[in-house]
Design goal:
The chain is mainly α and 73 residues long. The chain contains three helices and no strands. The N and C termini lie far apart (51 Å).
């Protein structure tokens, strides 16, 4: 019985420590930096030429679309 309680206690301590680390990550979130990063990415993606070829039978239908998909990944 004591061994089971010791294992349970260790498990709870591990879960508590990982939950605390997740909250620390949330508290370090900087809204202004996130907005700036989002704006930078949006401008970069909007500037790319990714027009489709009119009668293409493949997806992506152009080299530009393939390059844009790689950037998104």
């Amino acid at each position: 019985m004591r061994k089971a309680l010791a294992v349970l206690g260790c498990l709870l301590l591990t879960l508590t420590a990982s939950a605390e680390q997740n909250w620390r990550a949330v508290l370090r979130y900087d809204k202004q930096t996130a907005k700036a990063d989002l704006a930078t990415h949006l401008k970069k993606y909007a500037a790319q030429d990714s027009h489709a070829q009119l009668y293409a039978t493949t997806v992506p239908s152009s080299k530009q679309q393939a390059a844009f998909a790689k950037d998104l990944v």
